[in-house]
Design brief:
The chain has 458 residues and is of the alpha/beta class. The chain is 37% helix and 21% strand. Helix 1 packs across helix 7 (189-198), helix 4 (80-97) runs parallel beside helix 5 and helix 9 (246-258) packs across helix 10 (278-290). Bound molecules: NADPH dihydro-nicotinamide-adenine-dinucleotide phosphate (NDP).
């Protein structure tokens, strides 16, 4: 039987990095079967021992931060600084959830005639499907809580970016996790991903990716009554009020959208600026964009690297070059090999322009003015998505009001922070269903069982 393979290409140099064997449907079934068998022992590992193993897994990742980061730079073109943070995030998520097995509390509920106790039972084999934009953190947000709750995991990295996930699976074994508890299976979405969704012995899927694939996957999962967590696309608003610290808002706005070359579901790719300060804000934004250092991701001072693939660059460029759209200003991008695209600021003619409504997933940001608070909220919410966003104002009451009104799962005030492992993460509307991270993530990885104990009093 011929083995299907994938050539990993360095997005910054277009050089061949390595070739990876892609799993077949049969191999996926075998991996699920191994995970199903391993579940029978993993679920019974004493809570303290499961916690200890997860801490050892976190330590193993900690010892490999530089190696994982270098691997991600070559596979994904992430800047070395970002890639170190991403590997560190896997360590931190594991370490955070290593405390969970001993705190998987049920309840004791007063009832007539006895006592009712609830238990949080693990689900079984959890299938985790990861996109290419943040291969390490997004994997960890799924497998950290899944393993802590006593589930076993079969994880499919994106076909384009399998290398760090494969290495993390080796580190799990080295740390002492039993065989079959955590498997990483490189393969195509249409093969391995699809099989995880249709396999009867995978009761839960954590999917992160496009809204389009997420919808299809949910429909398929419904046929099997399978639980899903969906982390999907975004088109987040960065709302700048006239009373904000404009310098700070303008200086940080480029990072809020150009980080990871804009391939970020939380990218603030729409900037809404109050009309009275619009001109001043744009004057300050221009030098901030020009100063973004775009270049080789291995270079410690680089702030933005290439896009993941030639195809992605074509797709990003189609929002600007393919449309009659006014470009306000642009940053730089190196010539030569590599799928670089310059940070670009555009001025849409209307709120119906594609660049204002669709997720670009590249370093392109659209700016429009607004008159007042009501219009800012209306414009921010006039989107199919609702993942993230920022509100810049010095008025605390307004910050509260607007953040309650904006329909998004993760907001920040006078900041562009999006994800912390200790707080819930997920979207409203077409940005998804369910929450990852934070103290409640194990609720999505367990079933609640209640058991009534009759005491013979009635
Ligand atoms: P895709 O939806 O194309 O792919 C995501 C994952 O799903 C990949 O592993 C892919 O495999 C797999 N897949 C594709 N088709 C199927 C299928 N039929 N059944 C099962 N699995 C399948 O998204 P992208 O990779 O293009 O990722 C970018 C998207 O992810 C953006 O929309 C972005 O906003 C979103 N995202 C959301 C985040 C969030 O937390 N809300 C965070 C990060 C990204 P393969 O690649 O091998 O085809």
């Amino acid at each position: 039987m011929s083995v299907s393979t994938f050539k990993v290409i360095d997005p910054a140099t277009e050089e061949h990095v390595t070739t990876v064997d892609l799993a077949s449907i049969e191999q996926t079934d075998e991996a699920i079967e191994r995970a199903r068998t391993a579940f029978q022992t993993w679920r019974r590992v004493d809570p303290a021992d499961r916690g200890r193993l997860l801490r050892r897994f976190a330590d193993a990742v900690d010892g490999a931060i530089e190696e994982l980061a270098q691997l991600e730079v070559r596979n994904s073109g992430h800047t070395i600084g970002n890639a170190r943070w991403e590997a560190g995030n896997v360590r931190d998520v594991l370490s955070y959830y290593s405390a969970a097995p001993e705190r998987l509390f049920g309840r004791q509920i007063p009832v007539a005639g006895g006592v009712d106790i609830t238990f949080k039972e693990p689900l079984g084999v959890v299938g985790i499907i990861v996109p290419w934009n943040f291969p390490m953190p997004i994997a960890g947000w799924g497998f950290g809580p899944a393993l802590a709750a006593g589930n076993t995991v079969v994880l499919k990295p994106a076909e384009l970016t399998p290398l760090t996930g494969m290495r993390i699976a080796e580190l799990a074994l080295q740390a002492g996790l039993p065989e079959g508890v955590f498997t990483v299976l490189p393969g195509k979405g249409s093969v391995v991903g699809q099989r995880l969704v249709t396999h009867p012995d995978v009761p839960k899927i954590c999917f992160t990716g496009s809204t389009e694939v997420g919808k299809r996957l949910m429909a398929e999962a419904a046929r099997h009554l399978k639980r899903v967590t969906l982390e999907l696309g975004g088109k987040s608003a960065n709302i700048v009020f006239a009373d904000a610290d404009l310098e700070q808002a303008a200086a940080t706005a480029p990072h809020a959208v150009f980080d990871n070359a804009g391939q970020d579901c939380c990218a603030r790719s729409r900037i809404l600026v109050q009309r009275s300060v619009y001109e001043r804000f744009m004057e300050m934004l221009e030098p901030a964009v020009a100063s973004v250092k775009v270049g080789a991701p291995v270079d410690e001072s680089t702030e933005m690297g290439p896009l993941i693939s030639a195809r992605q660059r074509e797709s990003v460029s189609s929002f600007v070059e393919g449309e009659r759209i006014e470009v306000a200003f642009r940053g730089s991008a190196p010539d030569g090999p590599g799928w670089f695209y310059p940070p670009t600021v555009v001025l849409p003619a209307t709120t119906h322009d594609r660049v204002w409504t669709e997720e670009v997933f590249g370093p392109v940001v659209a700016v429009l003015p607004f008159e007042d608070e009501a219009e800012a909220i209306e414009m921010a919410n006039d989107s199919a998505y609702g993942l993230s966003g920022s509100i810049w104002t010095s008025d605390l009451g307004r910050a509260m009001r607007v953040s309650r009104e904006v329909q998004a799962g993760n907001l920040s005030v006078n900041s562009h922070s999006s994800v912390r492992y200790s707080t819930p993460f997920g979207g409203f509307k077409a940005s998804g269903i369910g929450r990852e991270l934070g103290p409640d993530a194990l609720d999505n990885m367990t079933e609640v069982k209640n058991v009534f104990f009759a005491t013979g009093e009635h």
